[in-house]
Amino acid sequence: MPSPFPGMDPYLEDPAHWRGVHAALIVACYETLNALLPDGFIARIEERLTILTPERSILPDVSVHRVAPMPAVPKTVAVIGDAPARVRASLLEVPQRFIEIVSLSEPEEIITAIEFLSLSNKTPGDGREEYVRKQQRLLRSSTHLLEIDLLRAGRHTVAATKEDLEAIFGHWDYVVSLHRAGEGAECDAWARTLRQVLPTVPIPLTAEVPDVRLDVQALLDHVWDHGPFRKTLAYRDQPFPPLNEEDTAWADALLKARGLR
Questions:
Q1: Domain residue ranges in the chain
Q2: Which of 28, 104, 183, 252 has the smallest number of Cβ neighbours within 10 A?
Q3: What superkingdom does the record give (predicted)?
Q4: 3-state class (DSSP) for residue 46
Q5: What is the C-alpha separation between 95 and 174, in angstroms, rounded?
Q6: Cα 108 vs. chain centroid, distance in angstroms?
Q7: pLDDT tens digits, 142-165
């Protein structure tokens, strides 16, 4: 049984599910691209680590690993009044995965970077700050940047500006932003509502090699079909984050028609 929704399934956005969805999307995209890319090009999964302190580690979309603290170094402390206790800081490593396309002839030169945005990318804090720094660096580089945002929650983060998207598309829920290297502040964008099928987008390579096409909806369908979601999604409840009033009524009718409510 496929997902009951024609495009993005809003029930997948819940933090309880998104961590697995995010990881599966990256793997599905990696496999799909390596089947599509012409000879001489490969896609690879890469990872960056963000160091967080425990009070800023509420990131349900990523796995969190504690970094072993450095051995305490004994120090002589002059006792003046109340002597301090020397304790160890607790640090957390948060891995964030993404895809890079490279040429086999120059594997250190990244041709295209592909990001599926996570909750940590869109939530104020260290993860978002690090992501935005990387984004801005790529926008000024010779690397193409494709950003896929399938999350309604959080701050607007993709390079395509929210103001321009609203002016062109009006209301939208999900967006894909493509910045081609050397095009300054210009981006291509595909915005979709909950009721629409997700787009098929170009993946740029080099000037001599034509774009390949990535079907974002097919990726999501693959993840849904090969995941546990038909067993775990509670369609009788409201999704999180909640839908607006009109989409709630539309989703309720859709799920009732499929016997899920």
A1: 10-66+91-257
A2: 104
A3: Bacteria
A4: strand
A5: 24
A6: 23
A7: 999 999 999 999 999 999 999 999
